[in-house]
């Protein structure tokens, strides 16, 4: 199965209709099918679906109700849904569109029209996914940005609260970065930040590890379930020195270095997220205060 094709979910209570639509679209999409509203909602939760073709008229849960439920759940609210129906009454069309369907196809199916509309909406869906990705990415370094980090941190904190697992949060500053820019110019400064970002993000091996640019020369790491954060950060500190980027204006070393402050905590201990951030920041301040190019693990 070619997984690079977009996935379409066809929902219709009549087998013949499902297969008619599937045959039409099978060359350009990966096809999933559901024969009723409940199983449609189930598939949407399990699969990464780009577009739903939804029969309006089905027994038990009709298409309108399926659409209403999709829109009510923030995880599925943005999913593109095309209504497919035999009812040509304008009021029904209006009802579907008002509920948030992106389009409306009337039965009997006209193959070329269906293909053209599906193609258009898949293109829109793809563009929206790209925009969503870009809005989470730092423009200079290509790693996660602060917005992405904030969302990931909140999710990780909620998970920690439920599971009792620890969460390591590290804040990282490039040492004497302003002096670096003044000495070598902003283009060289940007290049250095890209290299630092690459080292940090390459060290994120597990699915929920995250390295993000927090702003300017500040970076943050999120490492759920890691207790030995000191060893991890020491490795990174050494790896940044090994980049061997000359920095004649630094008091910490003759190459570019980083300072790291971190905290390891479980949300189930009743600590507020704001306090976690504040203490990690205080640990970073302490690392700088002690002479930079070092790792300080804070206490809370
Ligand atoms: Mg039907």
UniProtKB/TrEMBL annotation:
InterPro entries: CheY-like_superfamily (IPR011006), Diguanylate_Cyclase (IPR050469), GGDEF_dom (IPR000160), Nucleotide_cyclase (IPR029787), Rev_trsase/Diguanyl_cyclase (IPR043128), Sig_transdc_resp-reg_receiver (IPR001789). Residues 165-300 form the GGDEF domain. Its EC number is 2.7.7.65. Pfam families: GGDEF (PF00990), Response_reg (PF00072). Keywords: Phosphoprotein. It comes from Cellvibrio polysaccharolyticus. The modification 4-aspartylphosphate is found at residue 55. Its cofactor is Mg(2+). This is diguanylate cyclase. GO terms for biological process: cell adhesion involved in single-species biofilm formation; negative regulation of bacterial-type flagellum-dependent cell motility; phosphorelay signal transduction system. GO terms for cellular component: plasma membrane.
């Amino acid at each position: 199965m070619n997984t690079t094709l977009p996935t379409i979910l066809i929902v219709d209570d009549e087998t013949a209709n499902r297969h008619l639509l599937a045959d039409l679209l099978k060359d350009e999409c990966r096809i999933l099918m559901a024969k009723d509203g409940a199983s449609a909602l189930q598939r949407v939760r399990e699969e990464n679906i780009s577009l739903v073709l939804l029969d309006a008229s089905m027994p038990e849960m009709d298409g309108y109700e399926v659409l209403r439920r999709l829109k009510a759940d923030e995880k599925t609210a943005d999913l593109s849904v095309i209504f497919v129906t035999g009812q040509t009454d304008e009021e029904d069309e209006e009802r579907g569109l008002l509920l948030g369907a992106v389009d409306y196809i009337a039965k009997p199916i006209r193959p070329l029209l269906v293909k053209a509309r599906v193609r258009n909406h898949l293109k829109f869906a793809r563009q929206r996914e790209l925009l969503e990705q870009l809005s989470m990415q730092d423009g200079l370094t290509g790693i996660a940005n602060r917005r992405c980090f904030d969302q990931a941190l909140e999710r990780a904190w909620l998970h920690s609260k439920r599971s009792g697992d620890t969460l390591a949060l590290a804040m990282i500053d490039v040492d004497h970065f302003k002096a670096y820019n003044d000495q070598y110019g902003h283009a060289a400064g940007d290049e250095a930040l890209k290299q630092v970002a690459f080292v940090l993000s390459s060290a994120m091996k597990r699915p929920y590890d995250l390295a993000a640019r927090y702003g300017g020369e500040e970076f943050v790491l999120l490492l759920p379930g890691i207790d030995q954060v000191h060893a991890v950060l020491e490795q990174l500190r050494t790896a940044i020195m090994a980049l061997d980027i000359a920095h004649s204006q630094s008091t910490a070393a003759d190459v570019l270095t980083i300072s790291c402050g971190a905290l390891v905590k479980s949300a189930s201990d009743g600590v507020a997220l704001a306090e976690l951030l504040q203490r990690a920041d205080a640990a970073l301040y302490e690392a700088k205060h002690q002479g930079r190019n070092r790792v300080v693990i804070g206490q809370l």
